[in-house]
Amino acid sequence: HMTPFLHLSNKLAERGHRISFLLPNKAIQQLQHFNHYPNLITFHSLTIPHVDGLPIGTETASDIPLSLNDLLSIAFDRTRPQFEETVNTTRPDFVFYDSAHWIPEVTKQLGIKTINYNVVCAASIAIALVPARNVVKGRLMSEAELAELPVGYPSSNIVLHGKEWNALTFISFPFGENITFYDRITTAIKGCDAIAIRTCSEIEGNMCDYIGNQYGKPVFLTGPVLPEPAEEKLDEKWEDCLSGFEQGSVLFCAFGSQYILEKDQFQELVLGFELSGLPFLIALKPPMGVSTIEQALPEGFEERVKGRGVVWGGWVQQPLILAHKSVGCFVNHCGFGSMWESLMSNCQIVLIPHLGDQILNTRIMAGELKVAVEVEREENGWFTKESVCQAIKSVMDKDSEVGALVKKNHEKWSEKLVTPGLMSGYIDKFVENMKELVR
Ligand SMILES: O=c1ccn([C@@H]2O[C@H](COP(=O)(O)OP(=O)(O)O[C@H]3OC[C@@H](O)[C@H](O)[C@H]3O)[C@@H](O)[C@H]2O)c(=O)[nH]1
């Protein structure tokens, strides 16, 4: 979530505002090059205290599996004294935060306004994290309980189906000391002066209105806040690897910063790419239980795809790869950042969502906007190499009707989103809204 907070900071700095950005050391190193206004955006290093059960040196969610996020929240809450010290010395007009539910307690005493900035789709807040949602504490909620939509939820399409509802069980789990995820986020939102959401009314207007009514708070939209085109160049290694292929022929796959596949699913995925017969670059973390990609690849795979396929176990420059002329299809998890990046790219889009918000993003992309296809899963929730291959082929085959339809809709939406002034208009209005809040 730190990346989209920094993208917004850049837009605010572009308009002359100063920002103090608190984040752990490792994240400072990773995000440094996204800071386009180092004279106005100052990074303040946060020391993340150790909590038993977390690997030594854990600083961010990308260092750990999802199951340890609860402990990371405890560590995160223990940074409160560091936050208090910084806010006392810097005395900003506003504090932006998302899940640090205790921030309004600190800022209210100092007369500082707070903005609860949500960088996931509005639908995921509206469906799971509003006062109207029934949440049972102290036990696992059933699929039927989770499937009960909050009263007034504004869509019957942007919903989960069957077992997918279980992706929301986490809302009633502990997420920090003596607090559930649901209580944490709803407390964080109830305490703010205004809710901000990284979305646009063209796509999620109804969801945003619903959230505003539920909390009785103003809702400010920032639009998708896409980063400026990167000044850095694509690493030579990838430039060389990609440029040898025909325009628009390469499949690129990445699943964001958190998603770690089971080994069997990892193998089905790469075998699906092999089956497609197309060139590919897959950048994923090694799956559960193994430490390197090589240990995880199916037998004989590397030999068979030599010269046309690479599976890489580290971070790559996703926006630059998506912009490469040889890349024609982006297979991704539909994390909110990747959703916008894929929408703004020229690539065909294939989605394999995992977490609840990613499934809702997928419903928007594949169901409402019809700009993408989703990989089908079996009854048990798993996908097969055949389903991966079939989804890829459905958008990449030259004579596919589905491929032509999603391409046409995708072009229509990306044209709409790049309409001159649309994105900057969102930020200008957002700044105006903030000014009104302190007037
Ligand atoms: O190798 C990579 C992978 C990812 N990235 C970048 O990292 C960002 C990933 O962000 P996403 O929102 O897509 O995905 P994450 O999984 O990291 O996000 C997390 O927060 C947003 C939620 O919607 C997701 O459910 C949650 O997992 C993108 O900006 C992408 O360009 C890289 O630059 N290189």
Automatic annotation (TrEMBL):
GO terms for molecular function: UDP-glucosyltransferase activity. The keyword Secreted does not apply. Keywords: Glycosyltransferase, Signal, Transferase. It comes from the Eukaryota. Belongs to the UDP-glycosyltransferase family. This is Putative UDP-glucosyltransferase. It comes from Tripterygium wilfordii (Thunder God vine).
